[in-house]
Amino acid sequence: xxxxxxxxxxxxxxxxxxxxxxxxxxxxxxxxxxxxxxxxxxxxxxxxxxxxxxxxxxxxxxxxxxxxxxxxxxxxxxxxxxxxxxxxxxxxxxxxxxxxxxxxxxxxxxxxxxxxxxxxxxxxxxxxxxxxxxxxxxxxxxxxxxxxxxxxxxxxxxxxxxxxxxxxxxxxxxxxxxxxxxxxxxxxxxxxxxxxxxxxxxxxxxxxxxxxxxxxxxxxxxxxxxxxxxxxxxxxxxxxxxxxxxxxxxxxxxxxxxxxxxxxxxxxxxxxxxxxxxxxxxxxxxxxxxxxxx
Length: 294
Ligand code: PMP
Prior knowledge:
294 residues; alpha+beta; D-amino Acid Aminotransferase, Chain A, domain 1; D-amino Acid Aminotransferase, Chain A, domain 2; 15 strands; globular; binds 4'-deoxy-4'-aminopyridoxal-5'-phosphate
């Protein structure tokens, strides 16, 4: 396995970062996860746009221009001979003496990791997964905005520990007002009276790229969408529930706490449309030249 570290691809065993790296010491940094279909990084521009947004929120100067980041991503995929993969791009504040001041670090650390994508078990899509509502409150957006895709994931990890203890796949966090926010690595949707509901960005969530695509696809297919502030009781009263993220795409939910659901028609339809969207994207990008993935 090979990893892109700073300016080149190196064997994974040589991809080492200092213990003085502020990503390690303070979680000071940002990341993106992307999915690769048939050698094409889906929504690469959108992910890089969000990466730059995260960087600007934390005053981090990304040490590379967008075309160079794209080359680094594709070089990593090529080095690992991957066509169906997930890619993680991490940028930390970099090496520096102990202390919070970001100016202690002269050069951000830049890493691209790529691994083979292993499909989720089929029953996850056919029957759905289980969730809990976590007792862990989502970071207050005025304190640490979930729109920053930061390396500091403890808020989510605490909720994930609860999910594991409850033997379920994902935990949904509420915001400080008690409204639904998001999962530890996903956005949540539910259907009520035929309307597709999902927490608005104002609720303090990451505006997931999959979430955005799913909302557009729903509207295009005549499904009314409502973004807003919803309570757990509204979720329990839903006719169907699903979660979204880059690797899961659209994953139906069969239980939230003690409430059971059936994998529903809207989730099925949106998953189908999402995959169609992916196919179209891959065809289009493969047709673009000069190609980085041939
Ligand atoms: N919320 C959180 C907290 C996440 O970590 C993720 C995964 N990146 C998402 C939502 C879904 O975002 P996306 O659809 O862009 O993968």
